[in-house]
């Protein structure tokens, strides 16, 4: 008889886990099925790429037969349908503080689920290092994917973010492997004092099958001649009010529209700014994949005017649906866009942003050429399939190393 293991399942009476015996499934090569405890993010009131990253990666892993225990903090009392453990937290600007009892719930979940690896999307919360320690005490390899932003090399913002990396380094030192989004971020992690042999580069990725070119029902309803789109958090480093003012400064007619999707600390400021501006529409958080695809397909141009980024998932999504993009050279975004879009400096934002908007507005052939190159680039280098291939191999290497079968992964 096939041996059974305990799997965490939600109790129908609440959000706690109960143990359910299920048979161990074997892959065709008779290797035990991978079991991953994933500590990520749920799409709540504020739209953000971390939640999209968690959602698409967990779904992709489950689709290829990996058992995933998804742990995330619920926001506003709402839980994701694919969450297995929903924790409560207080969010202070960009910091998530797990409420008392969270670590005990995590410990109980790990005991029940018995994962092969623990993977933390940093920053999950202030418990990042504690989660890694819990795993190590059980001889479970722990992995961190670092989503912390980083800025232009010599900017004041970059200097502040370097200090953030140094502060986070002591937490990251608890992990057996660290996933960086780019070679640039890997160098920053090494500069912060982390062991280069434990850092592997697996770029952020997009589901190129779902985020693909096509028509948009939203675009059809707008009756607009030219549409600019921003999608992401509405926080200070994203500089969405600057985008709104630059768009209005073009003096275009009412058939030119700026669509802004997301939530965050600057939502009220934006509401005041665009109160008498029918050309600019605040859509709130759009978290559903189909709705995100439809919004991005509605765009003639997608704009990301950030001061700091890691590697923006919203940017990759816009490129994947085949849209011309304008992005600042923040984090890895400029290198990713390259000649498949318009890259502008982080500072000063103007006149570069206004010039880029005018250039793409008047040159439809250029927009089409950039859109085609953007789609080709995501297919070649940033597909979700390739990303999850890399993660799965890392999991297998670490599982084997924990069992004494192979050496641990090296960068």
Describe what this molecule looks like in 3D.
- The chain is an alpha/beta fold and 411 residues long.
- It has 2 domains: 4-205 and 384-402, 3-Layer(aba) Sandwich (Rossmann fold); 217-381, Glycogen Phosphorylase B (Rossmann fold, 3-Layer(aba) Sandwich).
- The chain has 14 helices and 19 strands.
- The chain has helices at residues 49-63, 102-113, 128-137, 156-172, 183-191, 217-222, 240-248, 267-273, 289-297, 313-320, 333-337, 352-362, 364-381, 384-402, and strands at residues 4-10, 17-23, 35-39, 67-73, 85-87, 89-92, 95-98, 117-122, 142-146, 150-151, 177-180, 199-201, 226-231, 256-261, 280-284, 301-304, 308-309, 324-328, 342-344.
- The strands form 5 sheets. The chain has a 7-stranded parallel β-sheet, with helices on both faces. A 6-stranded parallel β-sheet has the order 15-14-13-16-18-19, with helices on both faces.
- Helix 11 (333-337) links the parallel strand 18 and strand 19.
- Helix 2 (102-113) packs parallel to helix 3 and helix 10 (313-320) packs across helix 13 (364-381).
- The model is unreliable at 1-28 (pLDDT under 50).
Task: Report a brief summary of the structure.
The protein is built from 14 helices and 19 strands.
What are its keywords?
single chain, 411 residues, alpha/beta, Rossmann fold, 2 domains, 7-stranded parallel β-sheet, globular
* Ends apart, CA distance between termini: 41 Å
Using the alpha-carbon principal axes, give the shape. globular
The helix content is: 25-40%
**Rg over C-alpha atoms, rounded to the nearest angstrom:** 22 Å
The main β sheet shows up as: 7 strands, parallel
Rounded mean pLDDT is 85
The CATH architecture designation of the largest domain is 3-Layer(aba) Sandwich
């Amino acid at each position: 008889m096939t041996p059974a293991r305990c799997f965490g399942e939600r109790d129908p009476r609440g959000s706690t886990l109960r143990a359910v015996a299920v048979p161990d499934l074997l892959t065709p090569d008779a290797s035990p099925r991978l079991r991953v405890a994933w500590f990520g993010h749920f799409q709540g009131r504020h739209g953000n790429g971390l939640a999209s990253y968690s959602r698409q990666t967990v779904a992709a892993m489950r689709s290829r037969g990996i058992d995933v225990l998804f742990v995330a903090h619920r926001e506003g009392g709402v839980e994701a349908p694919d969450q297995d453990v929903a924790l409560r937290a207080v969010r202070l600007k960009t910091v998530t503080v797990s409420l008392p009892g969270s670590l005990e719930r995590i410990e109980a979940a790990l005991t029940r689920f018995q994962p092969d690896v623990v993977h933390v999307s940093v920053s999950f919360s202030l418990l990042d290092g504690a989660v890694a320690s819990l795993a190590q005490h059980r001889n479970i390899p722990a992995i961190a994917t670092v989503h912390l932003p980083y800025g232009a090399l010599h900017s004041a913002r970059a200097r502040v973010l370097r200090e953030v990396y140094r502060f986070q380094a002591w937490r990251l030192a608890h992990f057996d492997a660290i996933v960086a989004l780019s070679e640039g971020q890997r160098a920053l992690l090494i500069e912060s004092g982390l062991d280069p042999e434990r850092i592997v580069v697996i770029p952020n990725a997009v589901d190129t099958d779902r985020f693909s070119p096509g028509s948009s029902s939203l675009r059809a309803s707008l009756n607009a001649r030219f549409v600019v789109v921003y999608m992401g958090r509405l926080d200070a480093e994203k500089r969405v009010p600057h985008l709104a003012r630059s768009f209005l400064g073009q003096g275009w007619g009412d058939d030119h529209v700026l669509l802004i999707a997301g939530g965050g600390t600057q939502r009220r400021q934006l509401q005041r700014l665009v109160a008498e501006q029918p050309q600019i529409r605040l859509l709130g958080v759009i978290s559903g994949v189909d709705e995100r695809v439809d919004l991005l397909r509605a765009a003639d141009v997608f704009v990301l005017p950030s001061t700091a980024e890691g590697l923006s998932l919203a940017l990759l999504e816009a490129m994947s649906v085949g849209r011309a993009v304008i992005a600042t050279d923040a984090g890895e975004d400029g290198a990713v866009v390259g000649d498949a879009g318009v890259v502008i400096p982080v500072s000063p934002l103007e006149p570069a942003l206004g010039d880029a908007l005018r250039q793409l507005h008047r040159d439809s052939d250029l927009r089409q050429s950039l859109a085609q190159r953007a789609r080709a680039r995501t297919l070649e280098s940033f597909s979700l399939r390739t990303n999850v291939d890399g993660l799965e191999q890392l999991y297998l290497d670490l599982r084997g190393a924990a069992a004494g079968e192979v050496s641990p992964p090296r960068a």
